[in-house]
């Protein structure tokens, strides 16, 4: 049960065909890359190791690529980005998520009002909750909006039977100075009020299956790297891949006892523990 502690990712180069690497909490904290990350990505690339970024972002891959580039992590450092937003769009287009053009969609995000999902499917962005047919939970403003405010806004839609799609299952998110509740918690509130939620993103299986198809790789040849036991490590186990937990992000300050408690609580242990994504 005890994960193997490693000083850096160099020890695992060539052991796996593809590394599925989380974004927030592993590559950066939302404002800057973590120390050593750019060097590690460059060395992985130079060693011929495939790196695919697997992110619980409700926004599409190209948006995330732009944000990473502005942080100094350009597209030359990884193969591609697969997001939960991309996965949800693919599922909607295939009919696995029941949406239809013209539906009125209430968009809940981090404040940027990214309408790519709605635009691609012909949905109408609806600012008035009472008129919405669908709720897209893509982000959270949990650092400025309370759970009670979200609950009051969403409860009438849940009681009316409007379906919700959560494209970012993270229950906690990094914010300046700490963490706040994320989109996953908002989706939980919706379920608590009786609403139905389609969960897209880690730890749920669809994002892994989508990424594996795109990369033409089998689960047993993948190493998943992340900072969340609940999402990255549990998701890897469900997918059938090995996993590595980094001690940056939401568990950066967790004491050993708290870390063990998280493993027990979620019933999963990583195969490796790294101080960060460092060489």
Automatic annotation (TrEMBL):
A Pfam family matched in the record: Hydrolase_like
Hydrolase in keyword set: yes
Top-rank taxon, per record: Bacteria
Organism: Gluconacetobacter diazotrophicus
Keywords attached to this entry: Hydrolase
Organism taxonomic ancestry: Bacteria, Pseudomonadati, Pseudomonadota, Alphaproteobacteria, Acetobacterales
GO molecular function, one term: phosphatase activity
PANTHER family: 4-NITROPHENYLPHOSPHATASE-RELATED, OS08G0542600 PROTEIN
Protein name: TIGR01459 family HAD-type hydrolase
Keyword Hydrolase belongs to the record: yes
GO terms for cellular component: cytoplasm
InterPro entries the UniProt entry points to: HAD-like_sf, HAD-SF_hydro_IIA, HAD-SF_hydro_IIA_hyp3, HAD_sf
């Amino acid at each position: 049960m005890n994960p193997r502690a490693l000083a850096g990712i160099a020890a695992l180069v060539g052991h796996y065909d593809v590394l599925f690497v989380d974004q927030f909490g592993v590559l950066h904290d939302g404002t800057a890359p973590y120390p050593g990350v750019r060097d590690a990505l460059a060395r992985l690339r130079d060693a011929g190791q495939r790196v695919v970024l697997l992110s619980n972002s409700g926004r599409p891959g190209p948006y995330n690529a732009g944000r990473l580039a502005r942080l100094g992590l350009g597209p030359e450092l990884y193969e591609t980005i697969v997001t939960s937003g991309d996965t949800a769009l693919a599922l909607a287009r295939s009919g696995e998520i029941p949406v239809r053009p013209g539906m009125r969609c209430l968009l809940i995000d981090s404040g940027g009002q990214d309408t790519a999902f709605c635009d691609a499917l012909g949905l109408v962005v609806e600012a008035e909750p009472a008129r919405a047919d669908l709720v897209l939970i893509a982000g959270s403003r949990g650092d400025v909006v309370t759970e009670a405010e979200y609950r009051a806004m969403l409860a009438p839609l849940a009681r009316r039977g409007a379906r919700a799609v959560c494209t970012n299952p993270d229950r906690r998110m990094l914010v300046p100075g700490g963490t706040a509740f994320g989109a996953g918690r908002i989706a939980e509130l919706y379920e608590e009020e009786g609403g139905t939620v389609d969960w897209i993103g880690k730890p749920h299986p669809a994002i892994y299956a989508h990424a594996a198809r795109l990369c033409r790789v089998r689960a047993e040849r993948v190493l998943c790297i992340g900072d969340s036991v609940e999402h990255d490590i549990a998701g890897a186990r469900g997918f059938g891949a090995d996993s590595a937990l980094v001690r940056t992000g939401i568990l950066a300050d967790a004491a050993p006892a708290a870390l063990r408690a998280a493993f027990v609580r979620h019933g999963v242990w990583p195969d490796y523990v790294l101080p960060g994504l460092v060489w």
